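Q: Could you fold this chain for me?
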Amino acid sequence: MISIHLRASRFMQRKFVTNLALVLTLNLLIKPFWILGIDVAVQNAVGTEQYGFYYALFNFSFLLNILLDLGITSFNNKNISQNNQLLSKHFASIVLLRLLLVVIYAICVLVGGLMVKYNLDMMKMLAAVTCNQILISFILYLRSNLAGLHLFKTDSIVSVLDRLIMIGICGALLYYHNTPGSFQIQWFIYSQTVAYLITALITFALVVKKSKVRRLTWRWPFFMLILKKSYPYAVLVLLMTFHNYIGGVMLERMLPFRVGALQAGIYAGANRLLDASNMIPVLFAGLLLPIFARMIKLRQNVEEMVGLAFSLLVIPAIVVATCCYFFSREIMNLLYKGTNLEEYSRVFKILMCCFIPVAAQYIFGTLLTANGNLKQLNIVACSAMVLITVMNIILIPRYQAFGAAVSIITTQFLNSLAQIIVVRKVFEFKKNISFIMRLLTFVLYTIIINYLVYLFPLFWVYRLVVTALACFALAFALRLISVRNLYRIVKYDE
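A: Sure. Below is the predicted structure, expressed as structure tokens.
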């Protein structure tokens, strides 16, 4: 007879896999089309330099994004997962608290823009981007309530709704303004505003219905209590945001005016596929956080769940990163126009390797967050922030976008390694020598397969497909991904 703990663990694994399949299907149908179709078309339409200005402003507004949230979303996801009955009480007051934070955030961003000497046109764009950040943050908070209630199907639909609306609006604008120089970057920003506003209103209605809130309540003592509990999450989000977005801002500010915008545009273009790829681990984390939180509360063993997530996320990340490294020039040539192909390719191959440590962080960092190990995570994130800032100051003036790419890949790998060490210490995971050896073998042969197939005299797309299929076949052969285990989990009936 299967023990109660094992039955519960398998039920959680089944819930994770089945809901993951749904959310991945929806997002893989919509978001790649947005990122690789609409977003790329916009950059090609307005030019690398203009898009570079937008990218720098977007990153700047994101650096202060924590003021919009102060860790409330992460805390709320974990808290509602473990205490569903608190949704109505918390939601009625947190919405008003977030409105207060909106005012503080908007003032700080606009004052910050003046301090770094953005001109009038850039300040207008910054104001619009700030509005978008406010709407995005509100949507994420609303979705944290849906995820906390384990309404993963509803959350999956909401997760693609904004992009679906944007595709319709931007697609129409690009179609009717397809001559060079006729499309304006401001239209791209305003299209996002409309899409985020519609999504926020729909999601708000869904959460109100589930929470059965009749009116919003202003309770200052409750605000202080929530902020006290959420501030460790706020510090973590601030440090991680700074680490991930500072490169684009420093490129545009540290280099001469037009050079900085061009290099920021190149970095944005090379980073676009990484952003598209990161969609997958973000979706994993969105499912894993409430599941980990509930398993920890019920004192269930999380080691099998971590192993399952690692197999489904990090192993494919290794394949994707390696293939992109070898086929970097061909992929960049497919996406972009212009004379900066070599620079795009050189930066792209470095940035795509970040997909491996990022994927690992979304598993191990999420586990530590669910367990409340915020102090350890903040120490690791703070160290990474200091390191990437120093490396950018040294490397950007000399190597420009390539220097920023080297900085972030170095800190991402060190960050993920530190999180793995902390997880092993906190949860006392067993050292699986067999798995480590199979993983190292897989990495080595993945590189060899890519190198050999790249030399074949075939059209590059065929070589890329053959390489990816061969690498995944190797993963199955080495039992890094087990079809039998996946089948057992999906078919398992509590």
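A (continued): Residues 4-430 form one domain.
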